[in-house]
Design brief:
With 161 residues, the protein is mostly helical.
Length: 161
Amino acid sequence: MPLTVSNPRDLLLVELADILFVERMLSFEVIPELQKQVSDPELGGALAEHLEQTKRHVANVEAAFATVGAEPSSQLSRPFDGLKEQHSKIAGSVKSPALADLWHAAAAIHTEHYEIAAYRHLLVLAAQLGIEELERLLAENLRDEEEALERLEQVAGAVLR
């Protein structure tokens, strides 16, 4: 990752490092842990599906680095870290299983919004660079994130019913 951000490629690398951290944390730690915490089978199923997508997202982001001639590098994402901290701080104090599932779904929804915003901005930068493969990889991840958000919102609406 560049120490100085002086052009769209540099900014792209900074943002790719952030989203790579997020996708790796989600696939290796966050989603598997969340799956253990939920009791609603539909929410568990949505998380399982998105875990498989997220593993592909990691590979796509790593490939995105290669399209601009850079080695994959991840950088701590402070916003994502804050979302994780907020979730864990409250999760243990929610006593009702259905309400806890709603909290878990809300945390996943917040994360999806963060990822969608990141991919949308990455696509702006990719368009400026004019690298079709880069745009394809990022657009694929964005589509998955938008679909996951829609599914999580539907599941969250049904959790308390």
